[in-house]
Amino acid sequence: DGGITQSPKYLFRKEGQNVTLSCEQNLNHDAMYWYRQDPGQGLRLIYYSQIVNDFQKGDIAEGYSVSREKKESFPLTVTSAQKNPTAFYLCASSPRDRKANTEAFFGQGTRLTVV
Amino acid sequence: AQTVTQSQPEMSVQEAETVTLSCTYDTSESDYYLFWYKQPPSRQMILVIRQEAYKQQNATENRFSVNFQKAAKSFSLKISDSQLGDAAMYFCAYRRTNFGNEKLTFGTGTRLTIIP
Q: Which residue from A23, A35, A70, B80 could staple onto A91, CB 3.0 to 4.6 Å apart?
């Protein structure tokens, strides 16, 4: 079945450590997104990518980094520079073709906790 | 920059009744997409309904319908015959249609409670 997979579901990190969240999709979508979700703040865009080897900062990119070496994969690294990384992270993908279904498909999320 | 505003952090409705969730947005574009997503306790995001700005007709999906007022930049969601399974966070979202800028922007969400 086609879909988008995030791993792991739960992740614990010690302060000062970098950690990478995985996002893989087999929907052949060009665009991929990373969102952070905190209580009362909805979904805030961290980074997005429209094609391979290209990505743009979203609204809260500081302390995060991404790469897009393959169409299927868009990993997010939470660096030690992110002051408050404990949150729920959602990855999404969508097609770019106007004629295609335009909705974004979401993974099941990763809950990151700093200990 | 595009912004999406949901002014109702929480709403509640009696089972089988109708409820309307509000959403407004700010854009200088004339063509774009608007979405309502549902996030149940499982936290899986589910598309509820989609509206293309160039279409005059309001979108409808079974018990879900929208009231799209382009001039007012308003995009409300109406849920008819509310069911217990409708309890969730609802997010309004905006996306431009032009190729090359697929940024997808969300509002802060409305938590909907269904009262049995």
A: A23
Taking CA atoms, what residue in B is nearest to A9? B43
Interface test with B, best of A27, A103, A108, A110 (most B CBs within 10 A): A103
Cβ neighbours of residue A49 closer than 8 Å, sequence gap 6 or more: A31, A32, A33, A55, A56, A66, A68, A74
Determine the 3-state secondary structure of A7 from DSSP.
Answer: strand
CB contact under 8 A, A94 and B104: yes
pLDDT digits (tens, 9 = 90+) for B31-53: 889 999 999 999 999 999 999 89
The dihedral over CA atoms of B37, B94, A66, A32, expressed in degrees to the nearest 10, equals 70
Give B61-89 pLDDT, tens digit per residue: 999 999 999 999 999 999 999 999 999 99
Radius of gyration of chain B (CA): 14
